[in-house]
């Protein structure tokens, strides 16, 4: 008999598959003390949680019989994924269960803001009948800017088009072809900001999206535009939004999420132009049932010896391949992160080539590392080796593997190539005996770079003084160069230099570098 512990409140209908399973005993004990939780998990084969229970390394190590942890929802911030993997515990979530609820909630917030419904209702409650004060705007023929064109962004788009809105979308993975197929306009972030009458964000909260909508972004929007956030608090810089609302630059905001929650006392909620609710995007009976049901089926499948549909942690490398593949895991991640940081455009293909001895084994675990490290730059840490392929498929990105016995001068060579709708870029790396991971080729230029720390990639024209000008400018910004690698194909032609520097390169410095004579392209990255 499998014992399933549920430590947070879940929909009774959602866990019905578990309750009705003859081979499963369900223990529902929400709000346990830490001591009680440790005692109960020691007897459990599976643990199902929402966001309240913190699944720590200590908790996982107490679960000697634990085979799976199910998160009835999307985020797994409360689960120590590394510890779960170390303890051989599968972690699953339910990324699709709240899509409809969140999309519908976004539209409800959009319409409430457009027609001042909450404000008018509150006024009526106070005994006022003021029709002129709450004149709104129609959605028809207005432009909705969608930042983040994943599952929820696409569903919101379909509903907005039902209101005869025009839609322009931005997503790092969205190409013009994919946009046309979805019936929306494709734009850069700046183009979406400039054209939107209403702007809605549907991205994860990662380093790249934290304060994505900041003072500078808001300044690029139309006067009188309106903005929504039903995704994650922190995507919009609240202080900048407050100032834009106060000045009238932004006419209204509809906020389901906040940088700090509970958001009681948040000054944005004092403004009459703001519609705010306490993080209700997934708070529907159906969504709560859906996420519980999805996780219940995955839990039963794993406990019965099958494979989970929505795993989110890293599988172990088969024992027979560990000696050859394990040393290349870090290199795979570094190459993917390096190239993903410098490539431009919407991603179409991830191609990975294996040469030498690596061609003798199944390199799929390494390919997963490459795909994960590329996608994490755009999607966030929820991408891992297990779900990276599915996310790539959902984004319409093809993954290709190719082997060759040709050594190309190295015992093993791992090459990553990214094809976007703007360019194709490649990077190759290997392990040097006693020296560790090395980047040995970038876009056809031979180099020798350790893929770690603060790096600057510069495409330039091979002319006297180009390197000196770069060094002088970095010195002006108090940036010290640790190492420099330069590669070229022809004298006086195109060339590349890769610098390792001692500290972060500020945006202003990057901007100055980009305008140095004979410099064509500057990209800073941290590995």
Automatic annotation (TrEMBL):
<protein>
    <recommendedName>
        <fullName>D-3-phosphoglycerate dehydrogenase</fullName>
        <ecNumber>1.1.1.95</ecNumber>
    </recommendedName>
</protein>
<dbReference type="InterPro" id="IPR006139">
    <property type="entry name" value="D-isomer_2_OHA_DH_cat_dom"/>
</dbReference>
<comment type="function">
    <text>Catalyzes the reversible oxidation of 3-phospho-D-glycerate to 3-phosphonooxypyruvate, the first step of the phosphorylated L-serine biosynthesis pathway. Also catalyzes the reversible oxidation of 2-hydroxyglutarate to 2-oxoglutarate.</text>
</comment>
<dbReference type="InterPro" id="IPR002912">
    <property type="entry name" value="ACT_dom"/>
</dbReference>
<dbReference type="GO" id="GO:0004617">
    <property type="term" value="F:phosphoglycerate dehydrogenase activity"/>
</dbReference>
<comment type="pathway">
    <text>Amino-acid biosynthesis; L-serine biosynthesis; L-serine from 3-phospho-D-glycerate: step 1/3.</text>
</comment>
<keyword id="KW-0560">Oxidoreductase</keyword>
<dbReference type="InterPro" id="IPR029753">
    <property type="entry name" value="D-isomer_DH_CS"/>
</dbReference>
<keyword id="KW-0718">Serine biosynthesis</keyword>
<dbReference type="Pfam" id="PF01842">
    <property type="entry name" value="ACT"/>
</dbReference>
<dbReference type="Pfam" id="PF02826">
    <property type="entry name" value="2-Hacid_dh_C"/>
</dbReference>
<feature type="domain" description="ACT">
    <location>
        <begin position="455"/>
        <end position="527"/>
    </location>
</feature>
<dbReference type="InterPro" id="IPR036291">
    <property type="entry name" value="NAD(P)-bd_dom_sf"/>
</dbReference>
<dbReference type="Pfam" id="PF00389">
    <property type="entry name" value="2-Hacid_dh"/>
</dbReference>
<dbReference type="GO" id="GO:0051287">
    <property type="term" value="F:NAD binding"/>
</dbReference>
<keyword id="KW-0520">NAD</keyword>
<dbReference type="InterPro" id="IPR045865">
    <property type="entry name" value="ACT-like_dom_sf"/>
</dbReference>
<dbReference type="InterPro" id="IPR050857">
    <property type="entry name" value="D-2-hydroxyacid_DH"/>
</dbReference>
<keyword id="KW-0028">Amino-acid biosynthesis</keyword>
<dbReference type="InterPro" id="IPR006140">
    <property type="entry name" value="D-isomer_DH_NAD-bd"/>
</dbReference>
<dbReference type="InterPro" id="IPR045626">
    <property type="entry name" value="PGDH_ASB_dom"/>
</dbReference>
<dbReference type="InterPro" id="IPR029009">
    <property type="entry name" value="ASB_dom_sf"/>
</dbReference>
<dbReference type="InterPro" id="IPR029752">
    <property type="entry name" value="D-isomer_DH_CS1"/>
</dbReference>
<dbReference type="Pfam" id="PF19304">
    <property type="entry name" value="PGDH_inter"/>
</dbReference>
<dbReference type="InterPro" id="IPR006236">
    <property type="entry name" value="PGDH"/>
</dbReference>
<comment type="similarity">
    <text>Belongs to the D-isomer specific 2-hydroxyacid dehydrogenase family.</text>
</comment>
<dbReference type="GO" id="GO:0006564">
    <property type="term" value="P:L-serine biosynthetic process"/>
</dbReference>
